[in-house]
Hints:
The chain has helices at residues 19-29, 36-45, 50-62, 66-79, 84-96, 100-113, 118-130, 134-147, 151-163, 167-175, 182-191, 195-205, 211-228, 231-239, 246-259, 262-272, 279-292, 296-308, 315-340, 349-367, 373-393, 404-410; strands at 313-314, 417-418. It has 421 residues and is mainly α. The protein has a two-stranded antiparallel ribbon.
Amino acid sequence: xxxxxxxxxxxVVQPMVDRESAVRLLRAARGAGAPDDAIEWAFSAMxxxxxxxxxxxxxxxxxKNYEAxxxxxxxxxxxxxxxxxxxxxxxxxxxxxxxxLAADRxxxxxxxxxxxxxxxxQDAGRVAMALGHPLRAVRFLQRAATRRPDDRVRELLALxxxxxxxxxxxxxxxxxxxxxxxxLVSRLLMAEGRLLEAAETLQNACLVGSDSxxxxxxxxxxxxxxxxxxxxxxRRILVAVSIDRPDVLARAGTAWLSMGAFHTAAVRMxxxxxxxxxxxxxxTVLMVAAAMLNRPTLARRALRRLRRIDEPVERSDVAETWxxxxxxxxxxxxxxxxxxxxxxxxxxxxxLLHEAGGVLQSELDAGGGSMPRRERxxxxxxxxxxxxxxxxxxxxxxxxxxxxxxxxxxxGQGPGxxxxx
Length: 421
């Protein structure tokens, strides 16, 4: 038999676009919801046109292709070094990549050239909020609100007032909005101490909006229910969480740790660890859950995978995950001991803490002198968290476990990145 030639499936062929057609595509691409192909074809036909370049950069940033976006921004700034719009896009790229101080410096340069640029003032307010300077953010956003008096700017301004612990002023801003989002309303109600109304607002918002909006609302609702201790409602929410909603599933992992549902956390996070963009958080929860289940081999395997992936994880998030797991273990030991009529603090927690510290210590010893200093510091910090929480929970005179906020305070750290490499 003669062999038949295998034909490759036809791919997407970019059509030849003349300049007149590119202009039409560019005008269409400026509208909301324009297809990505229209922007790519317009930019390929007119790469030197500033509007086409800006749209292409915004498209790359939306798809989190920061390397390609930064290359186009740098190329454009070499030709037009005083282009404020390109500098603004570079600041947004830096902000999206977590380089807050660099983004702040870039926005200062933009505002020095164009002090009344509404978008730059709005982005400067966001960066100031991320840096923990709410009153500075208020100044930027108040100026932006005079240039762009829309609900989006007012929402950021209200959040800044809430961060500055000024709920009364934040309510005045919210009352001027035509359609305040449910997240903002719930946070305002929480700041005013109206927790039941805040939970009801979030519960109703879970039924409307897009998937991304619903995910943010569900995560906020879990935070609120954890603060109020409503474990029954949290369990009902977590039962319905699926891998199709990775943001909610990632948040559910830490909730399962706090509730002591370590087996569920391990199983569900093992599945989430296969999803790009969520591997770091999933493997961190899996490592802690395995340690709490007295599975040091599984914990060591998760830690090694965490070191190999190229997804940075906040050091404070790692410490918080450990403390949530330890708090959940305290709750389980307390319940088990009370059923047996024994001291609630004489369960397996101390042995589990010893095992968790042993896993981390073995990784520290295996690295030797070749381990990077930052990685060695991280492992030493996690070992110290285990030691201090062991001392905190080992007081047999206490009648109840330490509050979650007290346990988490042991692992308090400054901002920074925890990388596996």
